[in-house]
Design goal:
It is found in: Cytoplasm, Cytosol; Late endosome membrane. This protein is 71% helix and 0% strand. With 236 residues, the protein is mainly α. Among the domains are: 103 residues, Helix Hairpins; 33 residues. About 11% of the residues have low confidence.
Length: 236
């Protein structure tokens, strides 16, 4: 019995019959087997057509009867080839439809599993409890935000003092320090006697009341004292 006969007459495994029909996978496998068989039949017919055509050319007008017989066989093979082409198209369409149906079935099955899993997950969930939980979360977030704002604000230590009063007090302290510095400054004493009418050759370093910089002479102390005595006797 050919594969096509077994397929269309319901030839299958005992397991498939026991289940009341083949599974999609088994049906797809059968259709692919049939396609493979018909494809091989196509190759065989194409080879026979080429052979009969060559035989008809070989006989030609020399043996018209043999040439005509070869052409008749070629026509029958071509007719079978056309039939196989149509059958293959039908089987291919059926296989694609079955594959799509199987895919849709698997998708729906998996979606059903997912729906059952979601239902099981939601069995222990109470919408009222969820609303209360979300409200508690919102309140705690508000409390956390208030705490963060309070921590991040600048501490108001010492804000009870008036800044203007503090500035005035600081200016008074600065003025006192300035006045104290002015009192500590010693001005040079002015001599009570008049200056000599005639110039004398007196070392400039001894007029300390006219000089800002102190005398830097390296003369001996004895010479300085002697000059001071002379100046005092002249002034008197």
């Amino acid at each position: 019995m050919s594969k096509i006969s077994r397929f269309f007459k319901g030839g299958g495994s005992a397991a498939s019959k026991g289940r009341g029909g083949p599974s999609p996978q088994e049906a797809l496998a059968r259709l692919r087997e049939t396609e493979e068989m018909l494809s091989k039949k196509q190759e065989y017919l194409e080879t026979r057509i080429e052979r009969e055509l060559a035989l008809a050319r070989q006989h030609g007008t020399k043996n018209k009867r043999a040439a005509l017989q070869a052409l008749k066989r070629k026509k029958r093979y071509e007719k079978q080839l056309n039939q196989i082409d149509g059958t293959l198209s039908t089987i291919e369409f059926q296989r694609e439809a079955l594959e799509n149906s199987h895919t849709n079935t698997e998708v729906l099955k998996n979606m059903g599993y997912a729906a059952q899993a979601m239902k099981k997950v939601h069995e222990n969930m109470d919408l009222n409890k969820i609303d209360d939980l979300m409200q508690d979360i919102t309140e705690q977030q508000d409390v956390a935000q208030e705490i963060s704002d309070a921590i991040s604000n600048r501490a108001a230590f010492g804000d009870e003092f008036d800044e203007d009063e503090l500035m005035a007090e600081l200016e008074e302290l600065e003025q006192e320090e300035l006045n104290k510095g002015m009192r500590d400054v010693r001005l040079p004493s002015v001599p009570s006697t008049s200056l000599p009418s005639r110039p004398g050759k007196i070392p400039a370093c001894h007029f300390t009341f006219l000089m800002i910089k102190p005398c830097s002479s390296t003369r001996k102390r004895a010479e300085d004292e002697d000059e001071m005595k002379k100046l005092a006797s002249w002034a008197s």
